[in-house]
Design a protein that fits this description.
The protein is of the alpha/beta class. The chain has helices at residues 2-15, 19-29, 38-51, 55-65, 75-87, 109-120, 159-165, 202-211, 232-240, 259-272, 288-294, 309-328, 349-355, 381-384, 420-436, 438-445, 451-458, 476-481, 486-504; strands spanning 128-137, 140-144, 155-158, 172-180, 185-194, 197-198, 216-217, 222-223, 243-244, 248-253, 278-286, 302-305, 332-337, 358-360, 365-373, 390-394, 411-412. It has five domains: 2-87, no CATH class; 104-210, OB fold (Dihydrolipoamide Acetyltransferase, E2P), CATH 2.40.50.140; 222-412, 3-Layer(aba) Sandwich (Rossmann fold), CATH 3.40.50.300; 418-462, no CATH class; 466-505, no CATH class. Helices cover 42% and strands 18% of the residues. The chain is elongated and about 100 Å long.
Length: 505
């Protein structure tokens, strides 16, 4: 009976105490939140299962569950002890507010042990549901509920939980948290899922392998920014510095340029892209004017106003870790930063952001697109030039759509493949730049409303299909003059034409 009882108990834990049970209590009482008074109601709903068993059966079940000396208790007391084990220690939200920022260094050893005990007791743990982006350190870490922005409601995570579940900085962690009186903030005491995958599922083990995978590939997949947009800057990026998933791209400027405006245009383009799973838009240290104008338009973007450079740098670091963590799970993530100076004042901060751009072997990628000011002699731009894969070199502009670039300073170490027509178009642009000047080349790149229009206008005369040019029959007189049999030579030409038409069909 012992084995069957164990199986029966597991089934009870999986089926009898679900969210639906709790929802039933809430609906009966017309409430949307659980109170401590609900604890007894929850236990009463579960007691019916055990009431139908006799005392001998209950004692066997209690023994299998770990109840000490089950033969010394009455049926009522035995059921109470069984219910305590099933439900464990329950923590309900008593509308407590955190008094201090989450810092697990403030927890006492006793507090940590209580959190670990709570994690091991009960299958369904009640308490405040929390979900956020984990930021780790040597003592454990903090769950940022507002993704990358520090908040007093952030939740502490002890080191033992980090080690048990392999939680890494940037992971999305969900679970239950309770208020720790001695510390003055909430701490997690039960982990439900990491990156949307439950920790008790078979998929979690496979995901854990991917999360530890750091093998990278040469980036190759292009990202078209100008598709569906008439903003000139996007077309210039596609033509002169193509963006490839897994690379870092810089749009640098000397003179007047509204970084927020450019960020908004790129963000809108990435929102339409089917190749990008998520765009992390960071508009940091912006003026009040840009903040008011764009914060309502760029949904989901992280906005901060000028003033707190240290917190801006911390936001960039959290976004970088988040992008890397999600990319290791197979997602294509783009980090879009309005100003590289917000990455921080130390030497390595911006370099670490640029270095995070990569294409992982199993499919995920991190792409970084950032705007930079070249006028700052000691700025971050000059520290990361060697880390970026492509740069669009903008000069000053006099009017709204008057984009001026210095072609000699633009470059792209793209691993993407280009069609014959694109190569022909790029070659034509170089010719225009040499013969007529860079301004004329930029004007040619802005022809039409789309990228395809540019390629069409610059590559006119090139065949759309096939690597070889259309062969023409050679006049007999010219062939004879060259000492070649005209019939034989023209037969060869006709064969080439036939193969060409066959491929086209």
């Amino acid at each position: 009976m012992g084995t069957n009882d164990k199986t029966e108990f597991k089934s009870l834990r999986k089926l009898s105490f679900k969210d639906s049970t709790i929802e039933e209590i809430l609906s009966e009482n017309g409430r949307s939140e659980l109170k401590r008074s609900d604890e007894e109601a929850l236990k009463r709903m579960g007691r019916g299962y055990f009431d139908v068993h006799n005392l001998a059966e209950l004692r066997v079940m209690a023994k299998n569950m770990g109840v000490k000396s089950p033969c010394t208790h009455s049926k009522t007391v035995l059921i109470d002890k069984i219910m305590d084990i099933i439900w464990g220690l329950q923590y309900f939200d008593d509308d407590k507010l955190p008094l201090l920022d989450a810092d697990v260094k403030k927890l006492s050893p006793d507090d940590e042990m209580k959190l670990l005990e709570d994690n091991n007791r009960g299958d369904y743990v009640l308490g405040r549901f929390v979900e956020g982006v984990f930021e780790g350190d040597e003592t454990g870490g903090v769950l940022r509920l507002n993704r990358f922005v520090k908040n007093i409601e952030d939740v502490g995570v002890i080191k033992r939980f980090v080690n048990i579940y392999g939680i890494k900085s940037g992971d999305i962690v969900s679970g239950r948290a309770r208020y720790v009186e001695s510390a003055g903030f909430f701490c997690m005491h039960y982990v439900d899922a990491i990156n949307g995958v439950r920790i008790d599922s078979a998929l979690f083990e496979k995901l854990s392998e991917k999360r530890s995978d750091t093998a990278v590939l040469q980036p190759y997949q292009r990202l078209m920014l100008s598709a569906g947009s008439s903003y000139p800057l996007l077309k210039l990026i596609d033509v002169f510095t193509p963006v490839v998933l897994g690379q870092c791209v810089i749009v640098s400027s000397s003179g007047k340029f509204n970084f927020a405006e450019g960020t908004a245009a790129v963000a809108a383009s990435l929102e339409r892209s089917v190749k990008v799973d998520e765009t992390v838009v960071l508009c940091l240290g912006e003026s009040s004017d840009n903040y008011e104008r764009l914060s309502g338009v760029m949904a989901g973007a992280v906005f901060t106003r000028s003033g707190n450079s240290a917190e801006d740098a911390a936001i960039v670091a959290r976004a970088r870790d988040y992008a890397a963590a999600q990319a290791r799970c197979g997602k294509n993530i783009v980090v879009l930063l309005n100003n590289i100076e917000c990455a921080g004042g130390d030497y390595d901060s911006a370099a670490r952001l640029a270095d995070a751009a990569r294409q992982y072997e199993h499919g995920g990628s991190v792409t970084v697109i950032a705007f930079a000011d070249r006028d700052l002699a000691t700025g971050q731009y000059y520290r990361i030039k060697n880390y970026v894969s492509a740069e669009l070199f903008l000069t000053s502009r006099a009017f709204y759509n008057d984009f001026r670039i210095e072609l000699s300073c633009c470059y792209s170490r793209s691993g993407a493949t280009f069609t014959r027509r694109e190569k022909a178009a790029f070659g034509k642009l170089k010719e225009i730049a040499v013969e007529e000047g860079e301004a004329a080349a930029v004007g040619a790149a802005l022809v039409g409303s789309t990228y395809d229009d540019v390629i069409e206008s610059l590559s006119s005369g090139e065949e759309k299909e096939g690597p070889d040019e259309e062969a023409a029959e050679i006049p007999a007189a010219d062939v004879k003059a060259a000492g070649v049999d005209p019939e034989k030579e023209n037969a060869t030409v006709k064969k080439k034409r036939g193969r060409k038409r066959k491929r086209a069909k």
